[in-house]
Write a structure and sequence with these properties.
- This protein has 720 residues and is mainly alpha-helical.
- The chain contains 28 helices and eight strands.
- The strands form two sheets. Strands 1, 2, 3, 4, 5 and 6 form a six-stranded mixed β-sheet that branches.
- It is elongated and about 135 Å long.
Length: 720
């Protein structure tokens, strides 16, 4: 989270003029690591270049940076406001961008993360709108830092990755700090493997740029990560390198900080000589800097003393360290706990108990502070979300107002040009559109009616040839009745009409069950089911209604077949005289020639072809039957029972107290379809659906295509 170093990169990237010309400007820039001296130097340079907007703004920005470094946030705010009031400061977008970015940094340093996020986003949007990928990359990095501080780790990761993409797109080599931020983020997420990967990338980038101090800090981060994962060997290697580099750079405060980690490593890994050496080195550095040892180093020194059995020395070290800490310092918790242990070993039980109470109070206060921090994070996230929602609402309202104003202006212009002409034109266009819709609807209706009529005709062609069936039936003296699959009478001979005491013309189309008693109807229904299951014939006895006092009529129910062995669409009931045995009858009906429009003749049955062709034909019949039923169900919201009743093609039977269409169901599964299928009934069913169901265009096209496929197969088999 090196905000100020990133700011310096942005400042240098604009190529300000007086870097080598004016030593005052150069002094302001070079004293940023000494903030108290930098404040006066930047103010002097500002006064010298009062007429140059770029130089004066930069000097005030750098003064603000120095004031932030000293912790004087109010003074830093005043310097930023002075920069905002400079003449022409609001004209160049880069000046506005730098001001917004520094406002975000100041808010971040003050812990005002909601204001920081708002400022950083404003700066990012400004850079994006002006196409400056470098400035946009810096702003994305700023956003990642702020989001990480409020616990929005997912959004922080997205911001860091966006910054990385922008920086790489322009070939920016200053990526080490960003990689370090990513390593810190993954360390917070408890992902040591990813954290170590990004730290190593940062290490390579800092080495390439010759940034030795940053290399040392990265070694320190890797050592801390290894300590957290208890990889003592890796931690020792990284700490040795960090200490050596800080020593070579003369960074004694950093070197003293690292010695505390080295002492912790020695004690955790039971390497007491290394721990003693690190503690001694840290004490030497503290004496050289004339500062007390750090709380972390004091803690490790006390741990070593306790390990050596010198509880008194441990208590003295801890008391000295605690005296120099504020009551709210988080380091007090570990120091108090260890001091209670030291007092207990000295046998000072009451003091140890009092110290333990202080430890408990400090630990509770630390947990409460952490809880408050998390609540503050949630409050900030809520506040940011509310501000963003308010901004979005204001933006939407502004757009609506602009659109409303534009609409009113357009309306006034149209009225000025000619309201009458506009109304007339709209009326004409409306009439023309309605007329087109009416004509199109009429044409569609005509086409649908013509198509429905064509399919009705095709279904009629597939119906039985009544004349030839009647001729065959009249040749016998026995009572013969021809039925369709729905058990309706399609033809009778004179003997059957005489036996039923009804005119032949009145019998056609009526179910046979109307003319037999209830018991015979049950037997007849069961016989039909056996025929549908594949039996060639069934013997039974039928009692006519009104004729119950006389013996029943012996009858034979069988399925008539064509000359090629394929079953036809009729069932035959053969009745003989009461006093005679029913005569066996074999009837053959020749297949008719296919109709001119592609429909198949009344008695035609596809012939020839090998077994593979027959399997293909049965498969196409099943696909057609399934498609027809699906189209019927989807368009009429009714099922197979209603289709069978309305089409009069299939018989509806009662099976175990429920209605079923057994014959139709055989054509819905390839494994159950008869070896010689009744293809006419399948086609008639499809034609009925095409003619009577309210299908949409896709359903109609699919069903029509399947019908044509089956018809083509029938024609090929007939010619074979």
């Amino acid at each position: 989270m090196k905000f100020l170093s990133a700011v310096a990169v942005v400042m240098c990237s604009v190529g300000l003029s007086a870097e080598t010309v004016d030593p005052l400007v150069a002094r302001c820039r070079t004293l940023q690591q000494q903030p108290r001296e930098a404040i006066n130097a930047c103010e002097t340079a500002f006064a010298r270049h009062a007429g140059d907007i770029e130089i004066t703004q930069e000097m005030l920005f750098r003064r603000s940076d120095a004031e932030m470094a000293t912790g004087d946030f109010n003074a830093a705010q005043t310097s930023l406001e002075r920069a905002a009031l400079l003449p022409g400061a609001d004209e160049a977008w880069m000046s506005i961008y730098r001001l917004q970015r520094r406002r975000g940094i100041l808010a971040y340093r003050r812990g005002q993360f909601a204001q920081a996020l708002t400022a950083f986003r404003s700066a990012r949007d400004l850079a994006a709108s002006n196409g400056d990928a470098g400035a946009e990359g810096h702003s994305w990095n700023d956003l990642g830092n702020a989001l990480r501080r409020i616990g929005s780790y997912r959004e922080a990761l997205e911001a860091y990755l966006a910054s990385l993409q922008k920086k790489r797109s322009i070939g920016d080599a200053q990526l080490g700090g960003l990689m370090t931020n990513l390593g810190d983020l993954y360390r917070d997420l408890n992902d040591p493997q990813s954290s170590r990967s990004y730290y190593l990338q940062a290490l390579d980038l800092h080495r390439e740029r010759g940034r030795t101090l940053d290399v040392a800090h990265t070694h320190e981060s890797l050592a801390t990560l290894a300590l957290d994962t208890r990889d003592f060997a890796a931690a020792q290697t990284q700490l040795d390198q960090a200490v050596a580099m800080f020593h070579s750079l003369g960074a004694r405060s950093d070197e003293m900080r690292v010695t505390a980690r080295a002492a912790r490593l020695g004690l955790d890994s039971d390497n007491l000589p290394a721990a003693r050496s690190a503690i001694a080195h840290g004490q030497e550095l503290a004496q050289a800097l004339d500062v007390p040892i750090s709380p972390d180093l004091a803690l490790e020194r006390a741990r070593l003393a306790l390990h050596d059995g010198d509880a008194a020395s441990a208590g003295t070290v801890l008391s000295t360290a605690l005296a120099g800490l504020a009551d709210t310092a988080p380091e007090r918790v570990a120091l108090l706990k260890l001091r209670a242990t030291a007092l207990a070993r000295l046998g000072r039980s009451q003091e140890a108990y009092a110290q333990a109470l202080l430890f408990q109070q400090a630990d509770a206060a630390l947990r409460d502070a952490e809880h408050d921090r998390r609540l503050e994070q949630l409050r900030v996230r809520f506040e940011v979300a509310e501000k963003e929602r308010a901004l979005e609402t204001l933006g939407a309202e502004a757009k609506l107002r602009a659109l409303a104003l534009q609409q009113r202006t357009t309306q006034l212009e149209l009225v000025a040009v000619g309201a009458v002409l506009g109304i007339a034109l709209i009326g004409f266009l409306g009439y023309r559109s309605r007329e087109r819709q009416r004509v199109a609807a009429a044409m569609r209706e005509v086409r649908l009616q013509a198509e429905a009529e064509r399919y009705r005709d095709a279904a009629a062609v597939l119906a039985d040839d009544m004349r030839r069936v009647q001729s065959l039936l009249d040749r016998s003296d026995n009572a013969l009745v021809a039925l369709d699959l729905a058990a309706g009478i399609v033809a009778v001979n004179r003997a059957a009409a005489t036996a039923l005491c009804v005119d032949a013309a009145q019998l056609r189309g009526r179910p046979l069950e109307e003319f037999i008693d209830h018991a015979s109807a049950k037997l007849f229904s069961a016989a039909l089911a056996r025929i549908e299951d594949g039996e060639s014939s069934v013997d039974l006895a039928l009692t006519l209604r009104g004729d119950e006092s006389r013996p029943p009529w012996p009858a034979k129910l069988m399925s008539l077949e064509d000359a090629d062995g394929a079953s036809t669409v009729v069932h035959i009931v053969v009745g003989a005289a009461r006093d005679a045995e029913p005569a066996a009858m074999t009837l053959a009906m020749e297949p008719a020639r296919p109709a001119a429009d592609g429909a198949i003749g009344a008695t035609g049955q596809p012939r020839g072809g090998d077994e593979e062709s027959a399997d293909t034909f049965r498969h196409e019949l099943v696909e057609l039957m399934v498609s027809a039923l699906a189209a019927w169900e989807g368009s009429t919201r009714s099922g197979a029972i209603e289709l069978a009743e309305k089409s009069r093609v299939w018989r509806v039977a009662i099976d175990d107290g429920r209605l079923r269409v057994r014959a139709m169901e055989r054509y819905l599964h390839l494994a159950r379809i008869p070896r010689h299928p009744r293809w006419r009934e399948v086609l008639r069913t499809a034609f009925f659906v095409l003619a009577e169901a309210p299908l949409d265009a896709d359903q109609r096209a699919e069903l029509r295509q399947r019908c044509e496929s089956v018809q083509a197969l029938v024609r090929r088999r007939a010619l074979a």
